[in-house]
Write a structure and sequence with these properties.
With about 170 residues, this protein is an alpha/beta fold. The protein has one domain: Rossmann fold. It is built from seven helices and five strands; from the N terminus they run E-H-E-H-H-E-E-H-H-E-H-H. It has a five-stranded mixed sheet, with helices on both faces. The radius of gyration is 15 Å and the shape is globular.
C-alpha cells in the first residue's frame, strides 16, 4: 500500500494563496528529501506558469489530456507528460483545455473518480501529491478532494451530495 499523501489546496475564493502554498510547500518538502508531485488543477495554469512553463497552451500533455484519456478509456503511459523542475518537484501542468473538462465530466461514468484513477497510478512514485485547485467548488475541485477520502467518510458523502447538487443546476 502506498504511503503517498494527497493534499488538495482548495478555496472557492481566488487570491487566497493556493498556488503560492503549493509551490512553497512542494519545494520545501523536496528540500527535505521527499518526492513531490504538484498537480495544476486550475485552467488558468498559474502553478504551471510559476514553475517556468509560461506557454502552457503549447504543452502536448496536460491534466486535461490525461483525464480525457481516462474518460475515453484510452491507453496511457504512467508518468507521461510529467514535467521535472530544477527545484526537485514534478508537475502535471494545466492549461485552458481543463475548463472544458467540467462539461465532459458531467456525462462521464464514475466521474467523481476520474482524477483518483489517474493519480492512483502515480502514487507509488511520490511521497506527496499536492493539488492546486481552481477558485470554485465545481466538479474539478470536487475531484481533487476525492483522491484522499474513503467511501465511508463523511467528507466523501458530503462531496457526493455537492456533486449531484451541481449537476441539477
Amino acid at each position: 500500500m502506498s504511503k503517498c499523501k494527497v493534499i488538495a489546496l482548495a478555496n472557492q475564493k481566488g487570491g487566497t494563496g493556493k498556488t503560492t502554498t503549493a509551490v512553497n510547500l512542494g519545494i520545501g518538502l523536496a528540500n527535505e528529501g521527499k518526492r513531490v508531485l504538484l498537480v495544476d488543477a486550475d485552467p488558468q495554469g498559474d502553478l504551471t506558469t510559476s514553475l517556468g512553463w509560461a506557454d502552457q497552451d503549447n504543452l502536448s500533455v496536460t491534466l486535461a489530456t490525461q483525464m480525457e484519456k481516462i474518460i475515453r478509456d484510452e491507453p496511457m503511459e504512467v508518468g507521461e507528460g510529467i514535467l521535472h523542475h530544477d527545484e526537485g518537484v514534478d508537475l502535471i501542468p494545466a492549461n485552458i483545455e481543463l475548463s472544458g473538462m467540467e462539461i465532459m465530466l458531467v456525462n462521464a461514468m464514475s466521474r467523481e473518480f476520474t482524477m483518483k484513477s489517474y493519480l492512483s497510478g502515480l502514487k507509488k512514485d511520490y511521497d506527496y501529491i499536492l493539488i492546486d485547485c481552481m477558485p470554485s467548488l465545481g466538479m474539478l475541485t470536487i475531484k481533487a478532494l476525492i483522491p484522499h477520502t474513503q467511501r465511508k467518510n463523511t467528507l466523501y458523502k458530503f462531496l457526493n451530495w455537492v456533486s449531484k447538487s451541481l449537476l441539477k443546476h
